N-acetyl-gamma-glutamyl-phosphate reductase
Amino acid sequence: MIKVGIIGATGYAGGELVRILMGHKEAEIVWYGSRSYIDQKYADVYRNMFQIVDAKCMDDNIEALADQVDVIFTATPQGFLASVINENILGKTKIVDLSADFRIKDVKVYEKWYGIEHKSPQFIEEAVYGLCEVNRDKVKGARLIANPGCYTTCSILTAYPLAKEGIIDMRTLIVDAKSGTSGAGRGAKVPNLFCEVNENMKAYGVASHRHTPEIEEQLGYASGENVTISFTPHLVPMNRGILATEYATLKKDVTGEEVKAIYDKYYADEKFVRVLGEGVCPETKWVEGSNYVDIGFKLDPRTNRIVMMGAIDNLVKGAAGQAVQNMNLLFGLPESEGLELVPMFP
Ligand SMILES: NC(=O)C1=CN([C@@H]2O[C@H](COP(=O)(O)OP(=O)(O)OC[C@H]3O[C@@H](n4cnc5c(N)ncnc54)[C@H](OP(=O)(O)O)[C@@H]3O)[C@@H](O)[C@H]2O)C=CC1
Ligand SMILES: CC(=O)N[C@@H](CCC(=O)OP(=O)(O)O)C(=O)O
């Protein structure tokens, strides 16, 4: 059994990790880390875990945790892991970090977009960006995984094959994305109150959202070019789900069959990526509660553009599901262990 500790188990991403790991045959959670609920029963924080989890919440002492577990998930705010990580901890246990602390290779870019000083830049280089479908081999040998962001997982996987094959002009890429409110976490914030979100839709972080450089960096590796995108996130009145609609000018004349063949070249063998036919639009409902990414596209000859669309569950493929997928790779387990989650509907 893999012994697992979760720091931030009481947040939405941490709670989803607990839910998924309850169905994992090879993993056992031994530490439910919290900041606000220490010594309280975990099932009193999340009553869906009543009679399922008997443990009490622990603190966020990562040094003590590292002595007891094989892997630590940090589902904590930006800056937490960077402020506590050290060589001693990494010598004892693997870490899958759900925050952005080790996702961006250029520390100056991280500090500019996140507005905080990076406390452990010495570990950025070795951290592996845990987008499993792209970096599977690197993940297997890593000590520290930077689990990708939710908007970024969806946005990158949706455009990746076409960026890699040079089909789209990367200077023209626009990513328009919508997220359910769980993406903002469980902490009380006025913009996320029911009356602010219900029956409402709003853009935020326009031309300034912190996921912009993460998407640019990864699609830059794929295309071999410096990529600058327009990225606009929106908050929509749903609990879960991200839909990314992406627009780019085509560099070549291609047919729908050719585009589909390109997607299939990269994803036909990928269990968690479902490529829909041309003109079939993915919906967040069809992936809810699952680790799937659904991808569709439509050519628009009138504008010489392609519209690419991707849908994920932000808490699963966008966070906890992908984190477990990374854990499975780290420990040589079948990649889908614990992740055979059938989307729920309606
Ligand atoms: N929500 C989502 O869809 C996604 C989230 N993520 C990332 O996962 C991480 C957690 O996000 P999310 O679950 O949404 O956030 P939440 O606000 O729901 O949860 C935050 C968690 O971190 C703990 N925590 C808060 N402050 C500290 C601190 N200073 N030191 C230690 N622990 C602390 C909280 O403990 P307590 O509750 O006990 O106070 C809680 O368990 C973030 O980095 C986020 O960006 C990534 C992808 C998607
Ligand atoms: C709706 C909402 O507020 N979403 C969050 C992104 C989700 C998230 O937690 O970001 P990471 O994936 O980088 O960890 C935001 O816009 O900051």
Notes: Residues 99-100, 149-150, 179, 183-184, 211, 233, 235 surround N-acetyl-L-glutamyl 5-phosphate (ligand 2) (CB under 6 Å). The two ends are 35 Å apart (CA to CA). The chain has a mean pLDDT of 98.
